[in-house]
Specification:
This protein is mainly α. The protein has 13 helices and no strands.
């Protein structure tokens, strides 16, 4: 169904206004070491972050608690693998490793989970460039090309909008709506692009103090530091949520959960068992690992 100019203008202006609020909230949570907010967070949550910040009741613990509770809402997290990720041709090939990393995380094996999910993120970005742009990634500049991939996807989303939504308009109307759409996409894309370029794919020599979530540093063990935390895994999982939003839009597929009910019930039962049984193994893991300075202190405290 064709939407007239005034209706498109109103929709895009409302979307930009909402995205500006999200940018404000994202800036706030970055001050508490959370890199971004993904597009599936409910708007009232965004407003809460802003309200708590303004009345000075926001704390690092409150921010972390929100993201951790959101992750452990199994009704939501389980759905992403089969209800969202599996429907994107760019993510689906990596679903096995994504789900494997999720299992490891629920077992509190955060180092293994993080080391498995980072290559999946890199792989799906490479997959997009190869399939959509026919970009050669075997040369020395592979890493630089992947770092720029989010901008490539943003430009492709804008081109898709131009091709599908504005054909019936005159040039002035078309140019105006394209400028609004570009602003909307830029607001959103700047969030995850910052996360990738300032953290995961940043040059390891340029990392800010305390920023431990870096592909190069982790895989090459350039700094022997405890990057393996639940919070860092959640940031990476949320990055894939963000990418699924972009990819599904690019593939012109619904950005709604479409998991099969029976599959969801079966998976929930197994995940609940994994979480329950992994708690019983912590005493043995701690007995083997708690003499190491790198051992996650949060895991020690669980069995103290």
């Amino acid at each position: 169904m064709t939407i007239d100019f005034d209706s498109q203008k109103k929709l895009l202006q409302g979307a930009i206004e909402e995205s500006e609020m999200i940018l404000e909230a994202n800036k706030i949570v970055k001050d508490y070491n959370w890199h971004f907010i993904n597009p599936y967070i409910q708007l009232f949550r965004i407003k809460n972050f802003i309200k708590w910040h303004k009345n000075k009741t926001l704390t690092p613990e409150k921010v972390s608690e929100y993201f951790i509770n959101d992750f452990f809402d199994l009704g939501s997290t389980i759905c992403f693998v089969d209800g969202f990720f599996s429907r994107s041709q760019y993510i689906e090939p990596f679903n096995y490793y994504i789900e494997y990393s999720l299992i490891l995380c629920f077992q509190k094996d955060y180092a293994a989970a993080i080391n498995l999910i980072i290559p999946s993120i890199e792989g799906m970005l490479a997959n997009y460039l190869i399939v959509n742009k026919n970009i050669e990634l075997s040369g020395n500049r592979r890493y630089e090309k992947i770092k720029k991939s989010i901008r490539v996807i943003k430009d492709d989303l804008l081109e898709l909008y131009i091709d599908t939504e504005s054909q019936h308009l005159n040039k002035q109307q078309k140019d105006f709506l394209i400028s609004l759409k570009s602003k909307y996409l830029e607001n959103w894309v700047s969030i995850i692009n910052s996360f990738f370029n300032d953290s995961i794919f940043a040059h390891s020599d340029n990392l800010e103090a305390g920023n431990l979530l870096n592909r190069h540093m982790i895989f090459h063990q350039l700094k022997i530091v405890p990057y393996h935390t639940l919070e860092n895994y959640i940031k990476l999982f949320n990055a894939i949520k963000f990418m699924s939003w972009m990819f599904l839009k690019m593939e012109q597929k619904p950005i709604l959960n479409q998991i099969d009910d029976d599959l969801y019930i079966r998976k929930r039962i197994h995940y609940e068992e994994i979480i329950k049984k992994s708690a019983g193994l912590l005493i043995h893991k701690n007995a083997l690992l708690n003499s190491y300075s790198l051992h996650n202190p949060e895991l020690k405290e669980i069995t103290d």
